[in-house]
Amino acid sequence: MPAKPPRKPSRTSPHNSPRKSVKARPNPLDRDDVLYVDYKDTALLRTFVSDRGKIRSRRVTRVSAQQQRQIARAVKNAREMALLPYSSVAR
After folding, report:
1. What is the value of pTM for the model shown?
2. Contact assessment for residue 69 and residue 37, using Cβ atoms and an 8 Å cutoff
3. What are the pLDDT tens digits along the chain (91 aa)?
């Protein structure tokens, strides 16, 4: 029995779509030489909070794990001090 030729993948398959090239976006904290994330710096913290009040993920913000923990702690402290709003999603 002759060997079958390899199947050509269909164009509609989601697994065959070309990947988007990831832009080399710099870490915003390293770019601005921020060594310590302070809860009183609301202008900086607002860049890491969505319009709904949720803390953005590391994948979106491009910060390191340690910096993400500092950001989360600072945002939570700023919310407690009423400098930033809590999440505005009410169910």
Report:
1. 0.70
2. no
3. 778 887 776 666 556 656 666 677 888 899 989 999 999 999 999 999 999 999 999 999 999 999 999 999 999 999 999 999 987 766 6
